[in-house]
Amino acid sequence: MDSSSAAILGAFIGGTAIVGSYVILESYKRYRDRQGTASAFAGEIAAELRMGEARKYVENFTTIAAQLEQGDERPFPAIVSGEHRGPEPALRPLRDRIGMLPGDLPERVAQFHLYLGAIRTDLLRLAEGEFRGRPADAAILIREDLHLWVNDTVPLGRQLVTDLRALVRRRWFGLF
Question: How many CA atoms lie within 13 A of 102 on its CB side?
Fold first, then answer.
């Protein structure tokens, strides 16, 4: 092999090593970003579910709905503020990163947050007095939201927390 061929081969090998190193580094950075995003969503969803248990949402809203059905129309407490329409404000920046989650996780995380946002919006509507003078309609709304919470939001959230935590623990090419 002459010196020019050796130089070309050396440049090719060196260039390939640089490109390969960049690809490996970029893969690792994406892996870590995916882990961080999954961890943040898992923590937020787990906290939402835990707060629902600790604050006894189901029991309390069942009682409120029963009172409204009996015509007892007390002012509805302002449980959430207007800034809570939609996803948790602290995690809104993560919406741009949801697509880096694998498989159907982006769809299911979005679904969870849309359910939660719809329930929060209904709580705001109740607190703002939209159903004043219509206690039966308010009771129907609360019962619908309870159904959505118990039958859809909580089971979806629990499975998401499990799946997101598993993603966080997943190793990068078996190395880390």
Answer: 11
